Protein backbone atom coordinates (compact mmCIF):
# COMPACT_ATOMS: atom_id res chain seq x y z
CA UNK A 1 0.00 0.00 0.00
CA UNK A 2 2.78 2.41 0.97
CA UNK A 3 4.71 1.64 -2.24
CA UNK A 4 1.59 2.18 -4.39
CA UNK A 5 0.86 5.51 -2.70
CA UNK A 6 4.48 6.58 -3.07
CA UNK A 7 4.50 5.70 -6.78
CA UNK A 8 1.20 7.51 -7.22
CA UNK A 9 2.66 10.64 -5.62
CA UNK A 10 5.66 10.49 -7.91
CA UNK A 11 3.40 10.27 -10.96
CA UNK A 12 1.38 13.25 -9.78
CA UNK A 13 4.44 15.35 -8.97
CA UNK A 14 4.82 17.96 -11.70
CA UNK A 15 8.58 18.24 -11.44
CA UNK A 16 9.18 14.47 -11.39
CA UNK A 17 6.81 13.89 -14.30
CA UNK A 18 8.26 16.72 -16.37
CA UNK A 19 11.82 15.71 -15.57
CA UNK A 20 11.08 12.10 -16.49
CA UNK A 21 9.85 12.94 -20.00
CA UNK A 22 12.67 15.38 -20.64
CA UNK A 23 15.39 13.14 -19.24
CA UNK A 24 14.07 10.06 -21.09
CA UNK A 25 13.78 11.81 -24.46
CA UNK A 26 16.92 13.86 -23.92
CA UNK A 27 18.74 10.65 -23.03
CA UNK A 28 17.67 9.04 -26.31
CA UNK A 29 18.54 12.23 -28.18
CA UNK A 30 21.93 12.37 -26.51
CA UNK A 31 22.55 8.79 -27.59
CA UNK A 32 22.33 9.98 -31.19
CA UNK A 33 24.23 13.17 -30.38
CA UNK A 34 27.01 11.21 -28.78
CA UNK A 35 26.92 8.61 -31.53
CA UNK A 36 27.57 11.55 -33.84
CA UNK A 37 30.57 12.54 -31.72
CA UNK A 38 31.76 8.93 -31.39
CA UNK A 39 31.61 8.33 -35.14
CA UNK A 40 33.24 11.69 -35.91
CA UNK A 41 36.05 10.97 -33.44
CA UNK A 42 36.66 7.52 -34.91
CA UNK A 43 36.29 8.55 -38.56
CA UNK A 44 38.24 11.81 -38.38
CA UNK A 45 40.92 10.98 -35.77
CA UNK A 46 42.13 13.22 -32.89
CA UNK A 47 43.72 15.96 -35.01
CA UNK A 48 40.60 16.58 -37.13
CA UNK A 49 38.09 15.80 -34.41
CA UNK A 50 39.43 18.61 -32.24
CA UNK A 51 38.31 21.02 -35.00
CA UNK A 52 34.71 19.92 -34.47
CA UNK A 53 35.11 20.28 -30.70
CA UNK A 54 36.57 23.78 -31.08
CA UNK A 55 33.85 24.96 -33.47
CA UNK A 56 31.04 23.71 -31.24
CA UNK A 57 32.65 25.36 -28.22
CA UNK A 58 33.09 28.71 -29.98
CA UNK A 59 29.55 28.64 -31.35
CA UNK A 60 28.27 27.76 -27.90
CA UNK A 61 29.90 30.90 -26.56
CA UNK A 62 28.43 33.06 -29.34
CA UNK A 63 25.02 31.59 -28.66
CA UNK A 64 25.19 32.54 -24.98
CA UNK A 65 22.59 35.31 -25.35
CA UNK A 66 20.16 32.76 -26.80
CA UNK A 67 20.28 30.66 -23.62
CA UNK A 68 19.24 33.68 -21.61
CA UNK A 69 16.63 34.53 -24.25
CA UNK A 70 15.09 31.08 -23.87
CA UNK A 71 14.97 31.65 -20.14
CA UNK A 72 13.31 35.06 -20.60
CA UNK A 73 10.83 33.74 -23.20
CA UNK A 74 9.97 30.75 -21.02
CA UNK A 75 9.38 32.94 -17.97
CA UNK A 76 7.12 35.36 -19.87
CA UNK A 77 5.25 32.53 -21.61
CA UNK A 78 4.48 30.87 -18.29
CA UNK A 79 3.18 34.13 -16.83
CA UNK A 80 1.02 34.83 -19.92
CA UNK A 81 -0.32 31.26 -19.95
CA UNK A 82 -1.46 31.65 -16.34
CA UNK A 83 -3.54 34.62 -17.53
CA UNK A 84 -4.75 32.62 -20.59
CA UNK A 85 -3.33 35.19 -23.02
CA UNK A 86 -2.31 32.95 -25.92
CA UNK A 87 -2.57 35.86 -28.36
CA UNK A 88 0.11 37.73 -26.45
CA UNK A 89 2.33 34.63 -26.50
CA UNK A 90 2.05 34.74 -30.30
CA UNK A 91 2.96 38.42 -30.18
CA UNK A 92 5.94 37.59 -27.99
CA UNK A 93 7.04 34.89 -30.44
CA UNK A 94 6.85 37.15 -33.51
CA UNK A 95 8.62 39.98 -31.75
CA UNK A 96 11.42 37.76 -30.44
CA UNK A 97 11.98 36.01 -33.78
CA UNK A 98 12.45 39.35 -35.55
CA UNK A 99 14.88 40.55 -32.92
CA UNK A 100 16.85 37.31 -32.98
CA UNK A 101 17.20 37.30 -36.76
CA UNK A 102 18.69 40.79 -36.66
CA UNK A 103 20.96 39.89 -33.76
CA UNK A 104 22.11 36.66 -35.43
CA UNK A 105 23.23 38.59 -38.51
CA UNK A 106 25.27 40.99 -36.36
CA UNK A 107 26.78 38.12 -34.37
CA UNK A 108 27.66 36.26 -37.56
CA UNK A 109 29.59 39.28 -38.84
CA UNK A 110 31.46 39.57 -35.53
CA UNK A 111 32.14 35.82 -35.53
CA UNK A 112 33.46 35.89 -39.11
CA UNK A 113 35.88 38.67 -38.23
CA UNK A 114 37.03 36.94 -35.02
CA UNK A 115 37.71 33.74 -36.96
CA UNK A 116 40.52 35.52 -38.80
CA UNK A 117 42.33 35.74 -35.47
CA UNK A 118 41.37 32.23 -34.36
CA UNK A 119 42.63 30.72 -37.61
CA UNK A 120 46.09 32.06 -36.88
CA UNK A 121 46.15 31.30 -33.16
CA UNK A 122 44.55 27.83 -33.23
CA UNK A 123 45.73 26.67 -36.65
CA UNK A 124 42.25 25.87 -37.98
CA UNK A 125 41.20 26.35 -41.62
CA UNK A 126 39.09 29.54 -41.91
CA UNK A 127 36.56 27.87 -44.23
CA UNK A 128 35.71 25.33 -41.52
CA UNK A 129 35.04 28.12 -39.04
CA UNK A 130 33.06 30.22 -41.53
CA UNK A 131 30.70 27.42 -42.61
CA UNK A 132 30.23 26.39 -38.97
CA UNK A 133 29.26 29.99 -38.21
CA UNK A 134 26.05 29.58 -40.23
CA UNK A 135 24.83 27.67 -37.19
CA UNK A 136 24.44 31.07 -35.47
CA UNK A 137 21.27 31.87 -37.45
CA UNK A 138 19.43 28.75 -36.32
CA UNK A 139 20.83 28.85 -32.81
CA UNK A 140 19.53 32.39 -32.25
CA UNK A 141 15.98 31.69 -33.46
CA UNK A 142 15.59 28.14 -32.16
CA UNK A 143 15.55 29.13 -28.44
CA UNK A 144 12.60 31.46 -29.03
CA UNK A 145 10.37 28.52 -29.93
CA UNK A 146 11.84 26.14 -27.36
CA UNK A 147 11.39 28.87 -24.74
CA UNK A 148 7.70 29.05 -25.57
CA UNK A 149 7.32 25.27 -25.41
CA UNK A 150 9.22 25.16 -22.13
CA UNK A 151 7.04 27.93 -20.72
CA UNK A 152 3.92 26.01 -21.75
CA UNK A 153 5.39 23.04 -19.87
CA UNK A 154 5.13 20.83 -22.97
CA UNK A 155 8.14 18.84 -21.85
CA UNK A 156 7.37 15.84 -24.05
CA UNK A 157 7.33 17.97 -27.21
CA UNK A 158 10.54 19.67 -26.10
CA UNK A 159 12.22 16.30 -25.66
CA UNK A 160 10.95 14.90 -28.96
CA UNK A 161 12.25 17.93 -30.84
CA UNK A 162 15.66 17.55 -29.26
CA UNK A 163 15.61 13.90 -30.31
CA UNK A 164 14.85 14.87 -33.92
CA UNK A 165 17.67 17.42 -33.89
CA UNK A 166 20.20 14.83 -32.71
CA UNK A 167 18.94 12.06 -35.00
CA UNK A 168 19.12 14.17 -38.17
CA UNK A 169 22.57 15.47 -37.18
CA UNK A 170 23.86 11.95 -36.62
CA UNK A 171 22.51 10.40 -39.83
CA UNK A 172 23.50 13.34 -42.04
CA UNK A 173 26.94 13.68 -40.46
CA UNK A 174 27.86 10.01 -40.79
CA UNK A 175 26.67 9.83 -44.41
CA UNK A 176 28.49 13.00 -45.46
CA UNK A 177 31.76 12.04 -43.77
CA UNK A 178 31.50 8.52 -45.20
CA UNK A 179 31.32 9.86 -48.76
CA UNK A 180 34.57 11.74 -48.21
CA UNK A 181 33.57 15.23 -47.08
CA UNK A 182 35.56 14.88 -43.84
CA UNK A 183 35.28 17.85 -41.46
CA UNK A 184 32.93 19.61 -43.90
CA UNK A 185 30.53 16.69 -43.70
CA UNK A 186 30.45 16.80 -39.91
CA UNK A 187 29.77 20.55 -39.91
CA UNK A 188 26.98 20.30 -42.51
CA UNK A 189 25.36 17.45 -40.56
CA UNK A 190 25.39 19.66 -37.47
CA UNK A 191 23.64 22.44 -39.42
CA UNK A 192 21.00 20.16 -40.92
CA UNK A 193 20.01 18.81 -37.49
CA UNK A 194 19.09 22.11 -35.88
CA UNK A 195 17.50 23.48 -39.07
CA UNK A 196 15.12 20.51 -39.34
CA UNK A 197 14.27 20.71 -35.63
CA UNK A 198 13.56 24.45 -35.86
CA UNK A 199 10.87 24.13 -38.53
CA UNK A 200 9.24 21.14 -36.83
CA UNK A 201 8.79 23.23 -33.66
CA UNK A 202 6.02 25.24 -35.36
CA UNK A 203 3.84 22.13 -35.41
CA UNK A 204 4.12 21.94 -31.59
CA UNK A 205 2.68 25.40 -31.02
CA UNK A 206 -0.27 25.43 -33.43
CA UNK A 207 -2.61 26.60 -30.64
CA UNK A 208 -0.42 29.69 -30.18
CA UNK A 209 -0.09 30.31 -33.92
CA UNK A 210 -3.87 30.02 -34.38
CA UNK A 211 -4.68 32.29 -31.45
CA UNK A 212 -5.89 35.86 -32.08
CA UNK A 213 -2.75 37.96 -32.36
CA UNK A 214 -2.08 40.49 -29.63
CA UNK A 215 0.97 42.68 -29.70
CA UNK A 216 3.36 41.91 -26.86
CA UNK A 217 6.92 43.09 -26.56
CA UNK A 218 9.48 42.52 -23.88
CA UNK A 219 12.87 44.12 -23.48
CA UNK A 220 14.96 41.03 -24.13
CA UNK A 221 18.09 42.87 -23.06
CA UNK A 222 16.55 45.17 -20.47
CA UNK A 223 18.04 45.93 -17.10
CA UNK A 224 15.77 43.27 -15.58
CA UNK A 225 17.20 40.66 -17.96
CA UNK A 226 20.82 41.82 -17.71
CA UNK A 227 21.65 39.61 -14.75
CA UNK A 228 20.23 36.39 -16.31
CA UNK A 229 22.12 37.17 -19.52
CA UNK A 230 25.39 37.71 -17.69
CA UNK A 231 24.84 34.63 -15.53
CA UNK A 232 24.34 32.41 -18.59
CA UNK A 233 27.36 34.02 -20.21
CA UNK A 234 29.61 33.01 -17.33
CA UNK A 235 28.17 29.49 -17.01
CA UNK A 236 28.62 28.69 -20.72
CA UNK A 237 32.13 30.13 -20.72
CA UNK A 238 32.99 27.96 -17.72
CA UNK A 239 32.09 24.72 -19.50
CA UNK A 240 33.29 25.72 -22.99
CA UNK A 241 36.68 27.36 -22.59
CA UNK A 242 38.58 24.25 -21.53
CA UNK A 243 38.66 22.72 -25.03
CA UNK A 244 39.74 26.01 -26.60
CA UNK A 245 42.55 26.54 -24.09
CA UNK A 246 43.63 22.91 -24.48
CA UNK A 247 44.07 23.50 -28.24
CA UNK A 248 46.03 26.69 -27.50
CA UNK A 249 48.43 25.03 -25.05
CA UNK A 250 48.84 21.53 -26.52
CA UNK A 251 49.23 19.80 -29.87
CA UNK A 252 46.20 18.95 -32.01
CA UNK A 253 46.59 15.28 -31.15
CA UNK A 254 46.65 15.84 -27.37
CA UNK A 255 43.87 18.45 -27.57
CA UNK A 256 41.78 16.00 -29.60
CA UNK A 257 42.17 13.33 -26.93
CA UNK A 258 41.32 15.87 -24.23
CA UNK A 259 38.19 16.87 -26.18
CA UNK A 260 36.93 13.31 -25.81
CA UNK A 261 37.04 13.26 -22.00
CA UNK A 262 35.59 16.78 -21.92
CA UNK A 263 32.70 15.54 -24.06
CA UNK A 264 32.11 12.57 -21.77
CA UNK A 265 32.19 14.85 -18.72
CA UNK A 266 29.61 17.13 -20.31
CA UNK A 267 27.09 14.28 -20.33
CA UNK A 268 26.64 14.99 -16.63
CA UNK A 269 25.93 18.64 -17.35
CA UNK A 270 23.43 17.80 -20.08
CA UNK A 271 21.45 15.42 -17.86
CA UNK A 272 21.35 17.89 -14.96
CA UNK A 273 20.33 20.68 -17.35
CA UNK A 274 17.29 18.58 -18.31
CA UNK A 275 16.23 18.61 -14.68
CA UNK A 276 16.83 22.37 -14.60
CA UNK A 277 14.74 22.82 -17.75
CA UNK A 278 11.82 21.06 -16.07
CA UNK A 279 12.35 22.90 -12.78
CA UNK A 280 12.49 26.40 -14.26
CA UNK A 281 8.88 26.98 -15.45
CA UNK A 282 7.46 25.21 -12.39
CA UNK A 283 9.52 27.35 -10.04
CA UNK A 284 8.66 30.49 -12.05
CA UNK A 285 4.93 29.74 -11.89
CA UNK A 286 4.97 29.05 -8.16
CA UNK A 287 6.94 32.22 -7.52
CA UNK A 288 4.48 34.24 -9.62
CA UNK A 289 1.51 33.07 -7.53
CA UNK A 290 3.37 33.32 -4.21
CA UNK A 291 3.84 29.57 -3.82
CA UNK A 292 6.69 27.58 -2.29
CA UNK A 293 9.65 27.22 -4.65
CA UNK A 294 12.15 25.77 -2.19
CA UNK A 295 10.67 22.28 -2.32
CA UNK A 296 10.97 22.24 -6.12
CA UNK A 297 14.63 23.23 -5.98
CA UNK A 298 15.44 20.75 -3.20
CA UNK A 299 13.99 17.87 -5.21
CA UNK A 300 15.82 18.97 -8.36
CA UNK A 301 19.10 19.42 -6.49
CA UNK A 302 18.85 16.04 -4.73
CA UNK A 303 18.00 14.32 -8.01
CA UNK A 304 21.01 16.00 -9.65
CA UNK A 305 23.40 15.05 -6.83
CA UNK A 306 22.38 11.40 -7.20
CA UNK A 307 23.03 11.54 -10.96
CA UNK A 308 26.44 13.15 -10.40
CA UNK A 309 27.47 10.53 -7.83
CA UNK A 310 26.43 7.68 -10.13
CA UNK A 311 28.35 9.23 -13.04
CA UNK A 312 31.49 9.75 -10.94
CA UNK A 313 31.36 6.15 -9.72
CA UNK A 314 30.89 4.85 -13.26
CA UNK A 315 33.60 6.98 -14.86
CA UNK A 316 36.12 6.22 -12.12
CA UNK A 317 35.49 2.46 -12.22
CA UNK A 318 35.63 1.87 -15.99
CA UNK A 319 37.46 4.80 -17.63
CA UNK A 320 39.50 2.76 -20.11
CA UNK A 321 36.54 0.58 -21.07
CA UNK A 322 34.27 3.59 -21.63
CA UNK A 323 36.72 5.49 -23.82
CA UNK A 324 37.90 2.43 -25.73
CA UNK A 325 34.35 1.24 -26.37
CA UNK A 326 33.02 4.63 -27.45
CA UNK A 327 35.95 6.29 -29.19
CA UNK A 328 38.50 3.59 -29.86
CA UNK A 329 41.97 2.63 -28.68
CA UNK A 330 43.57 5.75 -30.20
CA UNK A 331 42.00 7.81 -27.37
CA UNK A 332 42.55 5.30 -24.55
CA UNK A 333 45.74 6.93 -23.23
CA UNK A 334 43.68 9.82 -21.82
CA UNK A 335 41.37 7.52 -19.80
CA UNK A 336 43.06 8.00 -16.36
CA UNK A 337 41.96 11.65 -16.46
CA UNK A 338 38.27 10.86 -16.90
CA UNK A 339 37.60 10.80 -13.15
CA UNK A 340 38.85 14.40 -12.81
CA UNK A 341 36.58 15.50 -15.63
CA UNK A 342 33.57 13.76 -14.07
CA UNK A 343 34.13 15.58 -10.79
CA UNK A 344 34.68 18.90 -12.58
CA UNK A 345 31.44 18.75 -14.54
CA UNK A 346 29.46 17.43 -11.58
CA UNK A 347 30.26 20.57 -9.60
CA UNK A 348 29.73 22.73 -12.69
CA UNK A 349 26.29 21.16 -13.20
CA UNK A 350 25.22 21.81 -9.62
CA UNK A 351 26.39 25.41 -9.88
CA UNK A 352 24.28 25.78 -13.04
CA UNK A 353 21.23 24.46 -11.21
CA UNK A 354 21.73 26.94 -8.36
CA UNK A 355 21.94 29.88 -10.76
CA UNK A 356 18.90 28.70 -12.73
CA UNK A 357 16.91 28.52 -9.50
CA UNK A 358 17.87 32.09 -8.58
CA UNK A 359 16.84 33.33 -12.03
CA UNK A 360 13.45 31.60 -11.88
CA UNK A 361 12.60 33.32 -8.59
CA UNK A 362 14.02 36.75 -9.55
CA UNK A 363 16.65 36.43 -6.82
CA UNK A 364 19.80 36.71 -8.91
CA UNK A 365 21.29 40.02 -7.82
CA UNK A 366 24.51 41.93 -8.38
CA UNK A 367 26.23 39.82 -5.71
CA UNK A 368 25.56 36.70 -7.79
CA UNK A 369 27.14 38.25 -10.89
CA UNK A 370 30.22 39.23 -8.89
CA UNK A 371 30.51 35.64 -7.64
CA UNK A 372 30.21 34.21 -11.16
CA UNK A 373 32.80 36.68 -12.43
CA UNK A 374 35.14 35.43 -9.74
CA UNK A 375 34.41 31.82 -10.72
CA UNK A 376 35.32 32.49 -14.35
CA UNK A 377 38.52 34.31 -13.40
CA UNK A 378 39.53 31.38 -11.18
CA UNK A 379 39.03 28.94 -14.05
CA UNK A 380 40.98 31.01 -16.58
CA UNK A 381 43.77 31.51 -14.05
CA UNK A 382 43.91 27.74 -13.55
CA UNK A 383 44.37 27.23 -17.31
CA UNK A 384 47.36 29.58 -17.36
CA UNK A 385 48.89 28.29 -14.13
CA UNK A 386 48.49 24.55 -14.75
CA UNK A 387 49.37 23.71 -18.36
CA UNK A 388 52.71 21.93 -18.17
CA UNK A 389 50.97 18.61 -18.90
CA UNK A 390 47.44 17.65 -19.93
CA UNK A 391 47.02 15.89 -16.55
CA UNK A 392 47.92 19.07 -14.67
CA UNK A 393 45.57 21.03 -16.95
CA UNK A 394 42.65 18.66 -16.20
CA UNK A 395 43.22 18.65 -12.44
CA UNK A 396 43.41 22.45 -12.46
CA UNK A 397 40.06 22.57 -14.29
CA UNK A 398 38.55 20.23 -11.68
CA UNK A 399 39.80 22.28 -8.72
CA UNK A 400 38.50 25.50 -10.29
CA UNK A 401 35.01 23.98 -10.65
CA UNK A 402 34.97 22.73 -7.05
CA UNK A 403 35.90 26.20 -5.78
CA UNK A 404 33.27 27.76 -8.07
CA UNK A 405 30.55 25.50 -6.67
CA UNK A 406 31.21 26.61 -3.11
CA UNK A 407 31.20 30.23 -4.25
CA UNK A 408 27.84 29.44 -5.85
CA UNK A 409 26.51 28.24 -2.51
CA UNK A 410 27.10 31.78 -1.31
CA UNK A 411 24.77 33.00 -4.05
CA UNK A 412 22.13 30.52 -2.91
CA UNK A 413 22.38 31.43 0.77
CA UNK A 414 22.52 35.21 0.35
CA UNK A 415 19.08 36.82 0.12
Quick tags:
415 residues; single chain
Summarize the structure in words.
The longest helix has about 45 residues, at about 155-200. With about 425 residues, this protein is mainly alpha-helical. Helices cover about 85% and strands about 0% of the residues. Helix 4 (about 65-80) runs antiparallel to helix 5. About 50% of the residues are buried. The model is unreliable at about 5-10 (pLDDT under 50). It contains 16 helices and no strands.
- What is the C-alpha radius of gyration, as a whole number of Å? 21 Å
**Averaging pLDDT over every residue, what do you get?**
81
Overall shape:
globular
**Oligomer status:** single chain
Helical proportion, percent range: over 70%
Distance between the termini: 41 Å
Q: Which helices and strands, and how do they pair?
A:
Elements: H1 2-12, H2 14-44, H3 46-62, H4 64-82, H5 86-122, H6 126-133, H7 135-151, H8 155-200, H9 206-209, H10 223-249, H11 252-288, H12 294-317, H13 319-327, H14 338-360, H15 366-385, H16 390-413
Amino acid sequence: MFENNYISKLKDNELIRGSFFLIALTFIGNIFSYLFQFFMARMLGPSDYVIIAIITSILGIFAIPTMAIQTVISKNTTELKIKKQDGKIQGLMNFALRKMLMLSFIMFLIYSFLCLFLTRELGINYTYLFIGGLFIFSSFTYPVLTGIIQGLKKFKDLGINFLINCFVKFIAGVILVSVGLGVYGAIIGFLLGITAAFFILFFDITSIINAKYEKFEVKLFSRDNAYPLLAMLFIVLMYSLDVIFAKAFFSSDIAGRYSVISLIGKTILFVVSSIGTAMFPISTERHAVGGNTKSVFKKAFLFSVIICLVAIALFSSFPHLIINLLFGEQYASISPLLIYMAIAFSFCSLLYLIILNRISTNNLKFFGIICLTLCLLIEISAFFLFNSTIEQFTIGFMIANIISFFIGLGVLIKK
